[in-house]
């Protein structure tokens, strides 16, 4: 989950690792990557609060902390499933799958639209209409999300991480990293290891 920010404020990334069996696969999306734009409102607030409870309970480690975390995670997934009762257009799902599978390669809208079977303008419009972000923003967000994981869990340099996730221009990687996280890779890595549980 990435929450909105004002100019000068940092992005907040929150993710949860879990076994699908512990949640029930019925609540999980069919596609490997599910993008949903959450407008400010009650659903966004409830999801944000559920994530806060997960963080709190996982740190407190009370007797039932694990069950409390799973309950909050189920609430998040149910809210998203209920909100997305209208399925994404299969062509948007296919575009997201293609982006995810070819993240490390240079991707042009023209080539992607040909793969999907739509004109570049139609794909761009449909993708943004259904996901709330442009195709390029979705791709860069995937790459930066992967970069944050590599920075947090490996000792690879920032330039190696940039290349690993598909950025062949380090300055562009730095600009995108700051855009999506509000900080630079070295500060992110230092903060992640300071906050690590």
Overall structural class, as computed from helix and strand content, comes to mainly alpha
Give the terminus-to-terminus CA distance.
19 Å
Tally of contiguous helical segments = 10
Uncertain runs are none
CATH topology of the largest domain: Arc Repressor Mutant, subunit A
**How many independent structural domains?**
2
The amount of beta strand, in percent, is under 5%
CATH class of the largest domain: Mainly Alpha
Cα-atom Rg, whole angstroms? 18 Å
Instruction: Give the number of DSSP strands.
Output: 0
* Element string (H = helix, E = strand): HHHHHHHHHH
CATH architecture classification of the largest domain: Orthogonal Bundle
Overall shape: globular
Main sheet makeup:
none
Mean pLDDT, to the nearest integer, reads 82
* Helix percent band: 55-70%
CATH superfamily descriptor of the largest domain? Homeodomain-like
GO molecular function: DNA-binding transcription factor activity; sequence-specific DNA binding
Keywords: DNA-binding, Transcription, Transcription regulation
Domain HTH araC/xylS-type: 93-191
Protein name: Helix-turn-helix domain-containing protein
